[in-house]
Amino acid sequence: MRYLPLTADDRAEMLKTIGAGSIDELFADVPEQARLSDAIAGLPNHQGEMAVQRHMEALAGRNLAAGCAPFFCGAGAYRHHVPASVDHLIQRSEFLTAYTPYQPEISQGTLQTLFEFQTQVAALTGMGVANASMYDGSTACAEAALMACRVTRRARVVLAPGLHPHYAAATQTLLQHQGVEVVQADPAIGADGEASALVDDQTACVIVQNPNLFGGLVDLRPLAEDAHAKGALLVAIVTEVVSLGLVESPGAMGADIVAAEGQSLGVGLNFGGPHVGLFATREDMKFVRQMPGRLAGETVDADGERGYVLTLSTREQHIRRDKATSNICTNSGLCALAWTIHMSLLGEKGLERLARLNHERACDLAERLETISGVELLTPSFFNEFSLKLNKPAADIVSKLAADGILAGVPASRLLPGKGFDDVLIIAATETNTDEDCERLAESLEGALS
Q: CA end-to-end span of the chain, whole Å?
């Protein structure tokens, strides 16, 4: 009982208080197949610290990490070069120990960082105002949907066919107990414009991703016009933030809210997290006051000197719970700081050059792979990610190439099981991929398909 001090009576009393009949009922929202019924296979019940460490290191050694092989995976998380100076700066003690400013006015350095972060996000997305960050892109997407419902006072959300299924699932999970109807067309390549047909006069927003799950670029303007004609908002999702160095910003194409994953800049893959969510909206107080999270602002003190404050803190930790726009916590300030440092090091021209390198690398790779028998390019318009149709199941090909030390991409069937995408492979190419990497992928793919 050293680490689990509650007795059976304690647990029963807690369950009674919240109205749950059992532990299983408490976790009813967790899918049955995701729950553990037995101990984790391969882990001993009890070992000394050194033995456990050796065992865990052996398990970790079985991973083929992104930096140890030609890496072409994307689908929402991307490998980019993060300058060593980013890691050096965020490890300064005044940054590393500052999680989040609960006493903000004495954390002027942290607040200034958040202010600069917000300024960069707003400029990058083409929006008027941004908040001080979110957990990640998927939860930012869900929060954008809730915000749209509050702004429009409607309770119906439409998801475009190319939205990442993890973003769709996070949105559905958060909205299902809020009385909000979530509608999504069947996933399809190049069909995001069809989301307009699902928008009616009860729709709060339509959520569309650009570039979409399959890497295809989407013109947001027609969707924005159709949504606005019905009184709905357009929520734009960006999973590859480097694309905004070349692709027209969501704000310029009519988006009302932008939710993005910022992991590509300053934050490594980290086997799935932590990441950093970006959130921006129109410069309209009706929208600003409904934003989740927090907003850092610039002001002057009693002596007329520049200073920073938390302008809006609409979380339940700061105000009455029934008045809170969200209970989501602002992302760990360290990830937002890393993003800001990387963006500052790049600058506007550096970001554009990085984006061009990504696009050119992807174009060259797509052209090379198209020459292989059994390969068809499905996304002719893309940034740094594209989808291929193969003459064999994509999951089998990925496993075969992984055994040869190549991480060849993400089988669409992994994200969309049973949806008819068994032969579709999503491939991302970034500035980290060398000519040798690309040629090795092409040769191995050709051999696997022959």
A: 58
CATH of 70-81+348-449, one of 3.40.50.300, 3.90.1150.10, 1.10.3470.10, 3.30.70.20: 3.90.1150.10
Asked if 195 contacts 183 with a C-beta cutoff of 8 angstroms, the reply is: no
Whether the predicted model's global pTM rises above the 0.85 cut? yes
Compute the half-sphere exposure of residue 12: CA atoms within 13 Å on the CB side of its CA: 3
On whether the 84-343 domain is CATH 3.40.640.10, my answer is: yes
The pLDDT confidence band at residue 9, using thresholds 50, 70 and 90, is very high
Run of H or E including 123 = helix 108-125
Backbone angles phi, psi at 201, to 5 degrees: -75, 5
Residues 204 and 211 sit within 8 Å (Cβ to Cβ): no
Nearest to 56 by CA among 42, 45, 70: 42
Tokens coding 311: 């302008």
Residue pLDDT, tens place only, 182-192: 999 899 999 99
Q: Hey, CA dihedral for 381, 384, 386, 390, is it positive or negative? A: positive
CB atoms inside a 10 Å sphere around CB 349: 9
